[in-house]
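BUG: 3D viewer hangs when loading the predicted structure for this chain

Environment: internal workstation, default settings.
Expected: structure renders.
Actual: progress bar stalls at 90%.

Input used:
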Amino acid sequence: MSNSKNIIWHNSTITKNDRHQLNGNKSCVLWFTGLSGSGKSTLANAVDSQLFKEQYRSYCLDGDNIRHGLNRDLSFKPEDRTENIRRIGEVAKLFVDSGLIVSSAFISPFRRDRQLVRDLFDENEFIEIYLKCPIQICEERDPKGLYKKARAGEIPEFTGISSPYEIPDNPEIIIETNEMTIEESVHHILSYLRDKKIL
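Structure tokens produced before the viewer hung:
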């Protein structure tokens, strides 16, 4: 909420429910969280692709991509990580208000920050998806070579090495990405969305 007394919220003529009717699906944020290398971006994009294939309205927000633009002024210090997640939570809320299913792929290591985002949304609109994967497997994958740099001290405050990752207490979905294929994972997530009458 703005600190200025001169800024007043303007309600849209078209409601979120109107957009649901037009789009043929309800809207929500699929919040993919987990260590670097756990498969967040890969799975988020796979889910988005399947939703598109089935003609549902969706969009994918990726952590690295957002840091190239909107959040390029932020570091990886704890306070900037919090601001990174706050901003993306607000962006995701706009997408949900527009009637879309938005897949957000961010490490988002701190429970408090994830809860702050969850609190932005109505009931059943925030779906936390914890990508559970042993750090040893994430390091073996190391698709961006980040763990190697972190171990060498070239990347300060790297999640899982020199900065903590706080495992979700009660996520809506847990995907063990070292045990499940991408296809199985996508099917599991879309089945959840159907069970919740989002699709």
